[in-house]
Amino acid sequence: MIFTFLATLCTGVFAGAAIYITLVEHPARLACGTAAAVAEFGPSYRRAAPMQASLAAVGSLAAVVGWWQGYGSPLLIAGLLLGSVIPFTLLVIYPTNTRLLDPRLDSSSPEAAVLLRRWGRLHLVRSLASGAAFIVLVTHLSAGPDETLATMWSLTRRSASSCMSRVL
After folding, report:
1. pLDDT classification of 91: cutoffs 50, 70, 90
2. Global model pTM greater than 0.85
3. Ramachandran region of residue 102, left (φ > 0), alpha (ψ -120 to 50) or beta?
4. CB within 8 A of 102, min separation 6: which ones?
5. How far apart are CA 115 and CA 38, in angstroms?
6. Where are the domains of the chain?
7. Which CA distances in Å does 60 have to 6, 17, 78?
8. Which of 6, 118, 131, 158 has the CA that lies 20 to 30 A from 24?
9. Tens of pLDDT along 43-66?
């Protein structure tokens, strides 16, 4: 059960961050002009990449383990959807990332503008795949036995209480 919870948590955080980048951050970056967008891309990418990679790896692995433990095929589907963003990023998006991060790229060039637009379209795929995975997991949990939801609620409450006791 803990793997189902972990998969849902990681997938939800990944999807939320990816969707935010697609709908808010990248369009705002582009609105500042090509040179500013390229300048902002590097620091943003360097901060987001480790978090997103970790969430995708842990979330997809947790979903597959949850499926293997018998918690249902939707976990496998969600795990494969979320896990698919890893090779997609490495094989399809990485060349665009590399070029955008290249210090020799003229940040105000037409090439830079094309790369930024391409990156936005490619990143949309990550948002859609992770969003679909999250919907699969939430739908599966909400349709599952009441015991599943009660267990997850209990774990969440215990974790929150533990965190609060440390803070206070």
Report:
1. very high
2. no
3. beta
4. none
5. 9
6. 2-149
7. 10, 16, 7
8. 6
9. 999 999 999 999 999 999 999 999
